From TrEMBL:
Transferase among keywords: yes
Key words, A-Z: Nucleotidyltransferase, Transferase
Pfam families: NTP_transferase
Species annotation: Ancylobacter mangrovi
Nucleotidyl transferase domain segment(s): 7-274
Protein name: UTP--glucose-1-phosphate uridylyltransferase
Keyword Nucleotidyltransferase among UniProt keywords: yes
Length: 296
């Protein structure tokens, strides 16, 4: 029987240089998609999948993320005094409970693999989820990406799982691409191989790794001795390839849309998609958007 996935890592130490000057004083993870920060959307996804404890791997000038997930007594009292119970209840639902979050510093910009390794003592010897906060996964059927992965994890009895999605063949050289093996369940395959940024003529598929993982704790020992790879950084993919020689990896094809909020275009598309799906504003937003498009 597979162990329960209780903990998740969110690496949030990036500088967000592609969004300067907006991110000069505000962490990129705190930029809002409609009415909540990008990182809140990802935390919501993790909690919906049963995650009980989230480890944020942070850097300098990221303290506002910690404040965001803490209680604000003055704000709560003000809302209570003004009778805004619905808003107060929403804040309480979305506030992580005592001891449900941990924060550790990466300190050096050595890549995703290094960020994951920095959380090793807080995760301990148990499988964990890893969610890249730049990548928003908007489900088609209401079941979030990590929840789909946890379901697949239970069906396969454990192992390591990575979420994938289809990209145009000419874009494979921008992503990590997987080669599929046997189908284990609908949308779930054994991974026969992983290739980092292959050109389309040699890519084993057009299924790209989407920024959601379930990994076994043995990855930490591999990351500890992992040599620097592309970009002079410690690459998570390099250690996953080593782990795949000893443990099974499975791909889970995400049923939904993915928005790369680390890019300006992806961030803007996410705002439009989530706004159109928001019952509070979608009715008035859609005609305004249609009118704007008609003018251009």
């Amino acid at each position: 029987m597979a162990s329960q996935i209780r903990k998740a890592i969110l690496p949030v130490a990036g500088l967000g240089t592609r969004f300067l000057p907006a991110t000069k004083a505000v962490p990129k993870e705190m930029l809002t998609v409609v009415d909540r920060p990008v990182v809140q959307h990802v935390v919501d996804e993790a909690r919906a999948a049963g995650i009980e404890h989230i480890v944020f791997v942070t850097g300098r000038n990221k303290g506002v993320i910690e404040d965001h997930f803490d209680r604000q007594y003055e704000l709560e009292e003000t809302l209570k005094d003004r009778g805004k119970t619905q808003m107060l209840d929403m804040l309480k639902r979305e506030t992580m409970g005592p001891g449900a979050t941990s924060f550790t510093r990466q300190q050096l910009p050595l890549g995703l693999g290094h960020a994951v390794w920095c959380a090793r003592d807080l995760i301990g010897n148990e499988p964990f989820a890893l969610l890249l906060p730049d990548m928003l996964h908007k489900p088609r059927n209401g079941t979030g990406c990590l929840a789909q992965m946890v379901d697949a994890y239970a069906k396969t009895g454990g192992g390591n799982h990575i979420a994938v999605y289809e990209v145009p063949p000419e874009q494979t050289e921008q992503y990590g691409i997987v080669a599929l093996g046997n189908e284990m369940a609908e949308g779930v395959h054994k991974v026969a191989g992983m290739v980092e940024k292959p050109k389309k003529d040699v890519a084993p598929s057009n299924l790209a790794i989407s920024g959601r993982y379930i990994l076994q704790p043995e990855i930490f020992d591999l990351l500890a001795s992992q040599e620097r790879g592309a970009g002079n950084e410690i690459q998570l993919t390099d250690s996953m390839l080593k782990l795949a020689q000893k443990q099974d990896f499975y791909s889970v094809t995400f049923d939904g849309s993915i928005y790369d909020c680390g890019s300006k275009l992806g961030f803007l598309m996410a705002n439009v998609a989530y706004a159109l799906d928001n019952p509070e504003i979608s009715g008035s937003f859609r005609p305004e958007l249609d009118a704007l498009l008609a003018q251009n």
